[in-house]
Fold this protein.
Amino acid sequence: MMNLSATREAVHIRRAELNEQEHVRHFLIEAAYWMEARGIGQWRREQFTTKLIHSYFVEREVYIAEVAGEPAGMFTLQKGDADYWQHLNDEQYVYLHRLTVSSRFRSIGLGPAMLKWAEQYAERQGSKGLRLDCMADLLPLNRFYQQHNFRYMGTHNVNGKLANLYEKLPPARDHEIRLQYFTANDYEQLIHWSGDAKFLMQWSGPQWHHPLKIADLDAYLQDANHPLYSDRLIYTAVDRTSNRAVGHIALTRMDREHRSARLSRVLVGDHEARGKGYGRQMIQEALRIGFDTLGMHRITLGVLDYNTQAKSLYESIGFQQDGLMRDALYQNNQYYNLCEMSMLEEEWHTSRPAKIL
């Protein structure tokens, strides 16, 4: 295994020559073989014909990444991508495809280095930014792109496969967040944040009981995070400057027939993270995903009526109160009222901020 800190200066990215088509084909076939061996159906070896590889050189720009002078990875860039982005296609963006790292050079950070180079290329071209796609069921790969500040823009059916669409966020300012899929790696942090019994009920509702357990989180995460099939999308909120996890949020009870969902388990973590605007950003980004990319008509939430600070925040974002459920929750020999709130799609389009994140 190579140490990227020792090779970073030796990484060189250049445009591939026409006579390197077979070398590029070898990269892609190797990657397809790796996927097939692991039951991943994204790429198949037989799809990378000589004719297809030649079309890349004609219709796109093909780039090779070298480490210490040795070819180690490749990707393609193009202006516009109507096949994947369909009605969202914009010729003023640069679109990245076929990002591939040779097996000998994995785990040294070459993938992020190529993403960074492509982002800088898009900037030099004067484009609006960098876009890419990822198969929706490849959750670790989706999270990889989310961790590198690509935001989810929708899911399209492309030749029978569902592709998640991502767009690179602009450079971060202080206290700006991104959302990335919640995974088992986040369990320990969420349990640490969960607090005592009263606080746990305040942010998570009555389904979980103190102390929060691994089994609860396993059940919560099971079958989650597929935008078109799951009934919930679960996220960790991360400060983009420090890469520090600062919160948790979920869209649950997703009903695609009636176009409704519920904003759930909204939590800004430790006290140091509070008062910096993270909560507002988390909610607005979850609403953007719900309304703008998933096409929801109504998004609801419930807030305990004594939690006046949270209720005021929801109202300032545009939620309206639907009613009060009296004595809805019981804990420590006391009943609590639950305030039900909702936002409709037309209210979102009227109240949504000009810039989110």
